[in-house]
Amino acid sequence: MGIGYAALAIKAGLTPFQTVIMSVLIYAGAGQIMIATMLAQGATLFAIVLTSFVLNLRYFVMNACIFNKVEDAPLPVRILSSHLAVDESFAMFMLMEESSIWTYIGLAGFAWVSWIFGAIIGVLILNLLPVIVANSFNISLYALFVALLVPAVKESKDLVILVILTAILNFILQLFIGNWSLIVATILGAVAGMYIVDDETILGESYNKDDDSKSNSCKTKEVQ
């Protein structure tokens, strides 16, 4: 995916340095691919920043869950480690029975370095690849979202309905508001999801309305 992102970024007009430094400073996976795609489509800077903010809001929740699990971690270490949060590292770390902030930093840091090297490799080999191969990276964003969506929608008809509804909203809105359709469709889809998808589907079998303390995901501290 890092190589695919680099291919899209270079095609969108970014320099090799800009392509790699975005992976170092932003490190948002699908967010970076989306930025490159929007740049290629001529979207405004404000629209790109706002769309990235909406798409990456999930990192607030992820970091809150991680820091709940490693409550003894010093604040400066938490601030530094928050930059490393991505879906895959978060999922692996939250499945661990017991762990520390340093285990998380090692896990997530390795993924970060791998993503950076992927961007570097993409920048170096893009011109060496056949045109048909280089152009195939244009589907990277769609392939990534399909990979994230399929495991979830297999288990829930409600999620299938929500995904289809959001896609239809995005298609219709694009006819009227252009690049802003993704932002508006995402927000409207999230609001609709509050009523279409129940909490148990999102939180898994550990969810229990009668006893929040049994949840295996984020656990809130009881106020004494």
Describe the structure.
- The protein has 224 residues and is an all-alpha fold.
- The model is unreliable at 213-217 and 219-224 (pLDDT under 50).
- The chain is built from 13 helices and no strands.
- The chain has helices at 2-11, 16-25, 30-40, 45-55, 58-69, 75-81, 87-94, 101-125, 131-136, 140-153, 157-177, 181-196, 199-203.
- 70% of the residues lie in helices and 0% in strands.
- The protein is globular.
- It folds into 2 domains: 2-144, no CATH class; 155-211, no CATH class.
In terms of topology, how is this protein built?
Elements: H1 2-11, H2 16-25, H3 30-40, H4 45-55, H5 58-69, H6 75-81, H7 87-94, H8 101-125, H9 131-136, H10 140-153, H11 157-177, H12 181-196, H13 199-203
The gyration radius over C-alpha positions equals 19 Å
- Total helices: the number is 13
Q: Could you say how many structural domains there are in total?
A: 2
The run of helices and strands is HHHHHHHHHHHHH
State the secondary-structure class. Answer: mainly alpha
Helix content: 55-70%
Mean pLDDT: 81
Largest sheet: none
Task: Give the CA-CA distance, first to last residue.
Answer: 46 Å
Shape: globular
What's the β-strand tally? 0
Low-pLDDT parts are: 213-217, 219-224
Give the DSSP E fraction (strand runs of 2 or more residues).
under 5%
